[in-house]
Amino acid sequence: MIRVIVVHETRLICELEATVLRNFPDIDIVACASSANEALAWLKKYSCDVVLVSVTLPEDGAFTLTRSMAK
């Protein structure tokens, strides 16, 4: 099972992406987040294999999130 967190600044798009991914039997959506800070909070609570991050997060959120996860 591949555990995924989806991050997109627009909640509706985040939920839409998660809904599409839920159609695959080997993918488990752990959470949807609309900011880098929200995603980091989810990462502290749950382990995951993949974080699907929108590059259009405000205030360099995608870069900040990726850098924080790499530490």
Quick overview:
The chain is of the alpha/beta class. It has helices spanning 11-22, 36-45, 61-70; strands spanning 2-7, 27-33, 50-53. The relative contact order is 0.26.
Structure commentary:
The model has no long low-confidence stretch (mean pLDDT 95). Strands 2-1-3 form a 3-stranded parallel β-sheet, sandwiched between helices. It is globular. The chain has 3 helices and 3 strands. β1 (2-7), α1 (11-22) and β2 (27-33) form a beta-alpha-beta unit. With 71 residues, it is an alpha/beta fold. The protein is 45% helix and 24% strand.
What is the topology?
Layout: E1 2-7, H1 11-22, E2 27-33, H2 36-45, E3 50-53, H3 61-70
Please state the structural category. alpha/beta
What series of H and E elements makes up the topology? EHEHEH
Query: Number of helix segments?
Result: 3
**Strand line-up in the sheet with most strands:** 2-1-3
Share of β-strand residues = 15-25%
Rounded to an integer, what's the Rg over CA atoms? Answer: 11 Å
Structural features:
three-stranded parallel sheet; 71 residues; 45% helix; alpha/beta; single chain
